[in-house]
Structure formats: C-alpha cells, structure tokens
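Session log. Operator J.P. requested a structure for one protein chain; no other inputs attached. Running the standard single-chain path with token output.
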Amino acid sequence: MKILLVFAHPEPRSLNGALRDIAVQELEAQGHEVQVSDLYADGWKAQVDRADFPSLARDERLVPVAASKKALETGTLTEDVRAEIEKLLWADALILQFPLWWFTMPAILKGWVDRVFAYGFAYGVGEHSDRRWGDRYGEGMLAGKRAMLIVTAGGWEEHYAARGVNGPIDDLLFPINHGILYYPGYDVLPPFVVYTVDRLDESGFEPIAERLRKRMRTISSTPPIPYRQQNGGDYLIPSMQLRPGLGEAGATGFALHLNDEGGATADFSSNGAQERVSWPIPESPREPTR
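Structure written below.
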C-alpha cells in the first residue's frame, strides 16, 4: 500500500515524534511505501485567506467556497495545496497523527484540512436530487481508500470513558472520523489512542510502541468503523434524517450513525474496539512532550 502520514506536532523529540518514527519504520518493514507531511517542519500555512486564491480579483469579495471551487477547476490552487492533494490521490491510506489539544486536533492540522479538502475534490461533488444528496459519507473522491487517527491525550482513559467527565473519546473524535474522513469517502479504521502521556516514563514507551507496530501490521486488513452510507437507503433524502426504526434501541446522538447490522469494529485490546493505552503516572517521570 501507499500511505500518507500527516504529522502535526511542533517538537520532533516528542512522544508523538517517536510514535511517528515507529509507525513509519513498521509500515516500511511491511513493504508499504510511506510519505510524511510534517506540518510544523514544513511551515504549513493554516489559515484560509486571499493568498490561497491568487486568481481572485483584488476588488472581488472573498467567498471561500466559491473561490475554492473556481481555483480547483482552473488549476490555480496554490502549489502547497496542490502537492497535498496529489499525495492524497497517490495514497491508498491516510494517517492523521496529532496530540489532542482542547478536545480536538491542533489548529495547524485543521488548517491543512480547510485548505486541502477543496470544493470539488473533498466536498461539493456528485448529484444532488431527491434520490441522492451528493457523493459523500461513504462515497466521493476518496472512496476505496483507508484512513485512521493516531492520537495522544494527557488525560486518563477513565476520563474519556462513557461516563467520564471529558466525554467519550469516540464522540470527541466523531467530527474528525465521520465528518472529515468518512465524508469524502474514506473507510475509517478505529483510532489508536494513547492516554496519560504527559508524564509517561521511558519504561512505558515500548509496550505502546509494540501495540502501534501491531496496528501498522494490520492497516490493510482492519475492519473499518461501520458508519452508515448516506445514499445507501438508511437516510431520507433530502431531509437526511435516519429512517424510523433504524438504530439500536436507546441509541442517540452519534451512535445512531453506526450500522448496528454492519458488524463490530475491530478489537485490539481488552478495553474494546479501539487501541487504548494508559499507564500509571510515575512518581519521578522522565517526560517526553506529547
């Protein structure tokens, strides 16, 4: 497989940097071809502004959606954005790796999505009618490719459990997994999440590294999260409401958009459907920055 890893951490000596190296080494050892987009090292421009659309007339009002559509159609997207789109088209799988900052991805990675997921490429494609509502949520330009997250979090795993004060990790990552990755068509794999990393000592690193190696060895075979396809019959069009009677009894919110007849997500640990790793906080830690 050809794999693109988009890395969003400002410190190469961080735990994230070490995990990135482990992931790349294992993927290459398995015969995969890997490219890395290191956003901080590359000085990635995060904000969308007029500089993204050099063909826009000076006196023309900037409407980002319309400007993105025109730039893609006319081949006038900026060179950095075009390069990332080419990588996405090249790759069979995408990995987004980042620390969880304020319950989401760092701004630089969100800016990568904002700029690279252009209109007519990642959204705004397909027929809109009373039968279909665009090629999205399981369809689109990136359908048939795989994607997953590698995420580090400072909090305890219990804090991100179903009754945890931070909210369930699956809910926190839903806007990324479903709204960013599944939207343009990716088959989204369960995330690799590492908890309590801010005070992780060196003795705890190798078990995490080995679990990550295991995930990288199965990147081509891991069953994806069974999200419902938008145009597959589960949603009323054009209201995009889930049909009555669908969804597990008592399911609400994000859980409604999982196909309860599609099988369970892959079980990589005793804790459930995703790779979850947490370690006791040592008394005298030697701390890598997460």
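Operator note: The longest helix spans residues 15-29.
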